[in-house]
Amino acid sequence: MDIVAAGVQDYDELLAVWEDSVRATHDFLTLADIDALKPMLMQQAFPSVHLQCVKNQQGAILGFIGVHNHKIEMLFVKDSARGQGIGKALLIHAMDTMKITLVDVNEQNLLARAFYERMGFHVISRSPVDDMGKPFPILHLQLSP
């Protein structure tokens, strides 16, 4: 599985993968919540992280990871591509090449928490609200030594 850099030219497709993934895994978010996050992703989140992605043979993005200062800021896989090892490959790549040690997950996203725990992370703290002050608790996880 090839992991390649993603750039500004990929932002629209990354946003589509993000939305597809979020709609499938974040049932606690409303459509209004999702729509409100889109401009922030395009204008602030994507430009502030090192983006890597996995593409299929036709060049379509199946999943991506965004890292900043040894922390995973985003990891999303297209719903139709889940269970194929894409998230695991992106995470291992980030662990090996970017020395990531931290990740935050929504407490309600049980699949994400279980995934990271299987990969060696453990909860170190909890915030009752997300970064935008919304009532979506965040679990802060750290890679076990």
From TrEMBL:
Keywords noted in UniProt: Acyltransferase, Transferase
Keyword flag Acyltransferase: yes
UniProt cross-references to Gene3D superfamilies, sorted A to Z: 3.40.630.30
Keyword Membrane part of the UniProt annotation: no
Family matches, as Pfam families: Acetyltransf_10
Every N-acetyltransferase domain range: 1-137
InterPro entries: Acyl_CoA_acyltransferase, GNAT_dom
PANTHER family in alphabetical order: PEPTIDYL-LYSINE N-ACETYLTRANSFERASE YJAB (PTHR43800:SF1)
Protein name: GNAT family N-acetyltransferase
Organism taxonomic ancestry: Bacteria, Pseudomonadati, Pseudomonadota, Gammaproteobacteria, Moraxellales
